[in-house]
Design goal:
- The complex is a heterodimer.
- By secondary structure, chain A is mostly helical.
- Chain A contains 14 helices and two strands, in the order αααββααααααααααα.
- Chain A has two domains: about 90 residues; about 230 residues, MetI-like fold.
- In chain A, strands 1-2 form a two-stranded antiparallel sheet.
- The longest helix of chain A is centred in the last third of the chain and has 33 residues.
- Chain B has two domains: about 55 residues, no CATH class; about 220 residues, MetI-like fold (Orthogonal Bundle).
- In chain B, about 75% of the residues lie in helices and about 0% in strands.
- Chain B has twelve helices and two strands.
- In chain B, strand 1 and strand 2 form a beta hairpin.
- In chain B, helix 5 packs across helix 7, helix 7 packs parallel to helix 12 and helix 11 crosses helix 12.
- The chains are: A mainly alpha, B mainly alpha.
Chain lengths: ~375, ~290
């Protein structure tokens, strides 16, 4: 473990009597290494047992997990024993860091390994290292590229959602009666589980024989209101359903921004006789830029995880037109049991997301600095 | 700003249209759960006028007036799933709020240095977890959980959900703690309280509303989560979304049944939305408006 040091004066400056002695320091080191040794021994026994070198041992790796938790606690406690007051401060951040490291880093490392293996659950051979084969397979897999292309469409749809949400937030912020009612009503779609939405909207209301939306379509003169048969319409339908769930989130974030607008500036503009459109264009929108960009980034992050409604409503069909990357990978796991290949795809997706988000955030920051 | 009459009509028109769009699916589900097969396939809309309500959907679930006091397997099943969801999502939210609040407080009050990582890097490390799509973790975790005997257990799900909502908690709570004046704690420290005592006695009561918002937001996200639950759980820890989804895929859809369990799945959160709207809005707004 690295040791915590205060580099400069902390915002909250603490003076405390030293509680660390050589004895407590030694004890701190002992418990860390002691519990580590325990975990290490258990892990070795378990490893030998699962590979059938020895006969005794536990049925699962769970004891090793307990030893690991014990070790983590010992590290935390030893911070106080070794560094005293500074160690106590470390304890604020330490559990969360340790938690994320344990649950993210181990599976990620393991996932990185399986993404370079040929591992099909339905084959009897088990895992086999196959180097870059999965990668070559990905390059020539039209469905994966198709799913990535769909993700671009889905992300672009965020702009339309943003426009709708901004309009509704402006209306909510204007002088209206029953604002609380409207706010609650607008919030409700966000509360609903995507699974329930998939059924309520996707399966039931869009049902082409008797669904109310289909009936409305017929009433408006659309002869065959089918929402999932042509690729473009199917994709559009999924976009609408997803937008329906997440527009509330954007409305609330934008509304918070609108309510924080400096009143004096708005008053001054009104006195100067600005009409609504110029006020929006020259005052409200520029001041709202940071909030708008935050909202967009958050929304895009959620959009990139889009999967539930697609998996349930269309399963990617027709012909992969509605596939998001996640739903495609899920089918790779579930229908074809291609664990190694699917994991590689998900890692490539993660890398693409990281690159995309880094560029996006850098671009946003630059834009904000120029605007400021 | 004064609006003219026609403008007013336009504003209320748009607001009411959107309200209709937001609420109609719920109305549809609620009414469908009281329909019989014939009324479903005719697309009838208004109860008592278009069709005669029936308890069919709720009876199959064991929740109609005539079955509520009798033995009912579907109801047992449903309640088991319901409590699984409740236990998992509330525990995960609580754990996330505890871990996240500590971390956010530490980051807002002290300068850390772990190796090359300073405070901004640590914050970024936490928030970057938000970007991680669940699908990347799903399979490795599945395999890891099998080795650890955590598949289909409550604790396994709680750990995963905590991970997915932890960045959100830290994001909300960091602003909350930054808004608390440091002088308050300094006064307590001068009086001889330790850092942890001043945290619990002074700071925590002030940020309690913020903590409530973070908790509710996490609860909503965990309650509705489907993807990870579908992979990790099978029987013991199966959650409601998974149960609902598994019924959707079956061949002949029992519309009234589906409507009833969808309504039951959504109802708790709709109630939460109506009564705790203030906290939800506060939580989401916390991240949007920054100084």
């Amino acid at each position: 473990m690295t040791k915590p040091t205060s580099i400069e004066r902390d915002p909250l400056y603490v003076v405390a009597p030293p509680i660390v002695t050589n004895k407590t320091k030694r004890f701190g080191h002992i418990i860390v290494w002691g519990t580590f040794t325990l975990m290490f021994l258990l892990a070795i026994i378990q490893f030998l047992n699962t590979n059938e070198y020895i006969t005794f041992g536990f049925k699962t790796w769970r004891p090793v997990l307990y030893a690991y938790i014990l070790w983590a606690c010992a590290i935390g406690y030893s911070r106080v024993l070794i560094y005293g007051e500074k160690g106590k401060r470390t304890l604020f951040v330490f559990p969360a860091v340790m938690f994320i490291l344990s649950i993210v880093i181990f599976p990620m490392l393991f996932g990185l390994y399986i993404s370079f293996t040929d591992w099909n659950l339905s084959s009897i051979d088990g895992r086999e290292f196959n180097g870059l084969d999965n990668f070559y397979q990905m390059i020539s897999d039209p469905y994966y590229w198709n799913a990535l292309k769909n993700m671009i469409y889905y992300v672009l749809a965020v702009l339309v959602e943003f426009a709708i949400a901004f309009l509704l937030a402006l209306l909510l912020n204007s002088q209206i009666r029953g604002r609380k009612f409207f706010r609650i009503a607008f919030l409700i779609p966000l509360m609903l589980s995507p699974v329930a939405v998939s059924w309520m909207v996707g399966k039931s209301m869009l049902e082409q024989r008797f669904g109310p939306v289909a009936n409305l379509g017929r009433f408006l003169g659309w002869e065959t209101p089918t929402f999932f048969s042509s690729p473009e319409i199917a994709r559009l339908t999924m976009m609408c359903m997803d937008a329906w769930t997440f527009i509330p989130l954007m409305i609330i974030m934008l509304l918070a921004g609108l309510q924080a607008l400096p009143k004096e500036v708005l008053e001054a503009a009104k006195v100067d006789g600005a009409n609504k459109w110029t006020m929006f264009k020259n005052i409200i929108f520029p001041i709202m830029l940071p909030v708008s960009l935050t909202t967009l980034v958050i929304r895009i992050i959620f959009k990139l995880k889009l999967a539930d409604i697609i998996i349930i409503v269309t399963a990617g069909g027709p012909g992969g037109a509605t596939d998001s990357v996640t739903s495609f990978i899920v089918r790779e796991y579930r229908d074809r049991s291609n664990v190694g290949y699917g994991t590689l795809l998900s890692f490539v997706y993660l890398i693409l997301i990281i690159i995309f988000m880094t560029i996006l955030i850098r671009f946003v920051n630059r834009w904000l600095q120029r605007a400021a | 700003m004064k609006s003219s009459f026609s403008e007013k009509i336009l504003i209320y028109g748009i607001l009411l249209l959107w309200t209709f769009i937001c609420l109609f699916p719920i109305y549809w589900t609620a009414t469908t759960s009281f329909k019989t097969a014939a009324s479903v396939t005719q697309g009838l809309l208004i109860p008592w006028i278009d069709f005669e309500p029936s308890w069919k959907g709720w009876r199959n679930l064991g929740f109609s007036p005539d079955t509520i006091f009798t033995e009912s397997n579907p109801r047992e099943e449903f309640l088991a799933r319901f409590f699984n969801t409740a236990i998992i999502s509330s525990s995960a939210s609580a754990l996330a709020v505890i871990l996240g609040s500590f971390a956010a407080y530490g980051l807002s009050r002290f300068n850390y240095k772990f190796g090359f990582m300073r405070n901004p890097d640590i914050s970024f490390f936490f928030l970057s977890q938000l970007i991680l799509p669940p699908v990347v973790l799903a399979l490795p975790v599945l395999v890891l959980y099998r080795e650890l005997d955590l598949l289909d257990t409550h604790i396994g799900m709680i750990l995963l959900y905590t991970l997915t909502v932890l960045p959100i908690v830290i994001w909300i709570m960091r602003d909350q703690f930054n808004a608390v004046p440091i002088e308050l704690e300094e006064a307590a420290l001068v009086d001889g309280a330790s850092v942890w005592v001043s945290f619990f006695k002074i700071v925590l009561p002030i940020v309690l509303p913020g903590i409530a918002s973070a908790f509710i937001l996490c609860l909503i996200l965990c309650w509705n989560e489907y993807f990870l639950a579908a992979l990790i759980t099978s029987t013991d820890a199966k959650t409601m979304p998974v149960m609902v989804a598994s019924q959707i895929s079956s061949q002949s859809i029992k519309w009234w049944n589906m409507a009833a369990i969808s309504a039951a799945l959504c109802l708790p959160l709709i109630i939460v939305a109506i009564f705790l709207e203030r906290y939800i809005v506060k939580g989401m707004a916390a991240g949007a408006v920054k100084q």
